[in-house]
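Final report, results section. Input specification for complex C-07:
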Amino acid sequence: MATAALEVDRVRKSYGKRRAVDDMTFDIRPGELFGFVGSNGAGKTTTMRIILGVLTPDAGEVRWLGRPVDFAARRQFGYMPEERGLYPRMKVAEHLRYLGELHGMSRAGARAAADRWIERLEVSSYASEEVQNLSLGNQQRVQLAAALVHEPKALVLDEPFSGLDPVAVDVMRDVLAERAAEGVPVIFSSHQLALVERVCHRVGIVGGGRLIACGTVGELSESAERRLLVDAPEAGENWAAGLAGVEVLSREGTRTRLRLAKGADDQRVLRAALATGPVSTFVSEQPPLTELYRDLVTRDDAASAETATAGAKGTAGSESEGGGR
Ligand SMILES: Nc1ncnc2c1ncn2[C@@H]1O[C@H](COP(=O)(O)OP(=O)(O)OP(=O)(O)O)[C@@H](O)[C@H]1O
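Structure output:
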């Protein structure tokens, strides 16, 4: 099993009475691109801020290479905050050099690194411009350069892809993949699930401040309802209707996509298809991350609602018992 580089261990954080992060536990391995996804307000930014030490957790711990993260470790991280954080009046190249030196680089080293990232992120024509004069997408490229300029050992990026044009998305993706290939663990949050599915090794899904699922897309799909693609050229429109636990998702020509509830028998589906004539395709399909995400989040919401109802009943029961005494 790969050793973890960055570990988030039972981290908890509340803002007043609101529990933003609850028992959050996951790890990121060297050279791994880890996608951090979840609905608005799920707790991603809070978790990332805790990793960076911008926020202190109420409980739990973040470890880097097996030790609690301290200031020296955090200096080795590259961070792209959600609210971004560049000085608008500073010039791009000057800004990046300044950040490099702030992280302990020599003047010459910071200059060389700034130049290198300006070129790599294709913002050379803005190097002498004030940050505030750049478009938002170009400011974001500079923001990534700012996270990278000191050659960080880990990258924590809050929605780095939001608002980028397709070419900038490709540049960002390539840079992150390159860093990961160099052994750097990379965690980034995103709502662009198709992109996350394409680029990430593993995905963590956050709901209500907790990690509700984590793994490769293949692993996540193991807990999901199975999908089948069946091509039965002589079958009528409704050949699969009425099969227990089977839902017809779509029909395109002679191909039918089916979703099987847990425990539904795929051999019965095959027999039903064969009863119509030849079957040229009968394969399991991995659902896209977007669907896995919906299934997992919906299931988690339902489970939370059930727990809350049970809790409320328990409380009501004990209150009435108390009242009767
Ligand atoms: N400074 C704050 N004060 C009070 N509540 C906060 C604060 N920051 C975040 N919260 C709350 O904590 C919860 C988690 O927010 P967080 O920003 O971590 O979610 P997120 O997953 O990053 O959401 P998004 O995808 O919208 O960026 C939300 O309910 C949010 O309203």
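The chain has two domains: 6-220, 225-285. DSSP finds ten helices and 14 strands in the chain. This concludes the modelling results for the funded period.
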